[in-house]
Amino acid sequence: MMEKEIRRILEDLHSKKISVEEGMKELRYLPFIDLGYAKIDSHRRMRTGIPEAIFAPGKSKEQIADIVRKTAGRDIIFITKADESIYEEVKNFGNVSYHKECRMIIIGKNEANGEKENYRGYVAVASAGTGDIPVAEEAAVTAETLGSEVKRVYDVGAAGIHRLLDFKDVFFNADVIIATAGMDGILPGVISSLFPAPVIALPTSVGYGTGIGGLAAMLTMLNSCSPGMAVVNIDNGFGAGVFA
Questions:
Q1: Dmax of the chain from CA atoms?
Q2: Where are the domains of the chain?
Q3: Please, which residues bridge with residue 40 across strands?
Q4: Which one, of 162, 161, 132, lies nearest residue 152 by Cα?
Q5: Is the distance from CB of 68 to CB of 91 less than 8 angstroms?
Q6: What is the CATH number of domain 116-243?
Q7: What is the overall mean pLDDT for the chain?
Q8: Is the pLDDT of residue 221 over 90?
Q9: Closest listed residue to residue 51, CA positions, set 121, 111, 126
């Protein structure tokens, strides 16, 4: 069906029944690759500017490898929450890197290619505690891969606020700040009250007891009176990095 639709669009374009702009509009919403167990959105980048990501939990290694096989070389591929066994399964599909700390696999090259003139912006990434680093790294690696310059400042939680202030220049110069915290979730509100850049508050599931798997941290962030802050879901480092 998809091939017939593409042919119809091209024929309409050739016969001048539709304009180039109308043809592009139709193509943006048309293509996907049907694997039965997965419908790969091959034009997500065209529509949204962000490539599709593979969320590893719940998928077999064979399914993930098959998805990568069908899409490798078309665009950057993110595989999130992935263990090393999945990396072993896909490591031969081109330019593949495994970021062990955040359990993320990247297939493809950094969009800025390490060149400062190619950066899309400057993102500062902070974590309240060392335990929050894996989620903060997921955000940082995502933002870097999509072409942002990223600087990291970790373990600067509100229990020792002087540590944060020692890195004030990192935050003052940022275009956007990702602030990651579990436990009480205070850090994003503190950062938002001190620095001019918009803050993406990233709650983590780090904590225990009444932390309720990160719910307490997220509610603290949602109820912050500090302006200029938006909150993503618990442990959603990829979402925070994309938003940045």
A1: 68
A2: 29-107, 116-243
A3: 33
A4: 132
A5: no
A6: 3.40.50.1970
A7: 86
A8: yes
A9: 111
